[in-house]
What does this fold into?
Amino acid sequence: MRYISFSCRGYASYGCVIDGSVTDLGKASGLPDLAGYIAANFESLGTETGLAADHGLCDIHYLPVIPNPGKVLCVATNYREPGDDMTERPDYPLLFSRFAGSQTGHDEPLPKPEVSDKFDYEGELAVIIGKAGRRIAEADALAHVAGYTCFNDGSVRDWQKHSSQFTPGKNFARTAGFGPWMVPRDELPDPFNLALETRVNGELRQRNNTSRMIFTIPWLISYVSQFAVLEPGDVIVTGTPSGFGSSRKPPVFLQVGDVVEIEIEKIGTLRNIVATEPDH
It folds into this structure.
């Protein structure tokens, strides 16, 4: 089962993708959004039956998987590189927040900010919370996960470096791709060994595996839950490997027309084209 948020013919809803068609779960459930649906159906995600096709995939526009998350918490970097097994883990990760409006859906444009020529990509695995919790034990953390998806933590590097706080460079409107869909936890019981690749115009830029995360998914969930109540629909974006534009020698940043693809094994491919920033 693959869960999406989408718009079609002027209205927004959410549903699941089966055999190239979309079932509109919002129409039948009466729940306002995918986060609400996840909360109400957490224990039975992926087991729905009797689903009818309401739309073709060609008829919809993808929205961010969770268009209105209460929290989007992101981890900086977070991967050991191949052959680098000796790096000592720091005590804590570097965390920052994104706003809901900084996200966009699969196959939607990524607007390159006019105020910068240092627009960058970061391919990441995103974890979507399905069950509320506070002070969650690391051993219990995955029991709070609804599912997983791809995330492009689009970063405006010069604005990110204005101070030690990342907020400006991480929150330009619609600069983060989020999708295409959520794969429920029960269909992906081992998120600790997934190949991750980022390609720009077909050229491989990032390649690693979630087995090489410095701070693991359960550790991150437990840590975040010590200071914040995690709620259904919250998103934890788990960090990126090297190979993003500013880490290359010389640095290479995104230009209008570039195609960015982030592929994660057993989840799918998030694709966005860099576009001119609109006036509004």
About this structure: DSSP finds five helices and 19 strands in the chain. The helical segments are 25-29, 34-40, 157-160, 167-170, 217-227. The domain at 66-276 is CATH 3.90.850.10 (Fumarylacetoacetate hydrolase; domain 2). The CA atoms of residues 153 and 197 lie 14 Å apart.
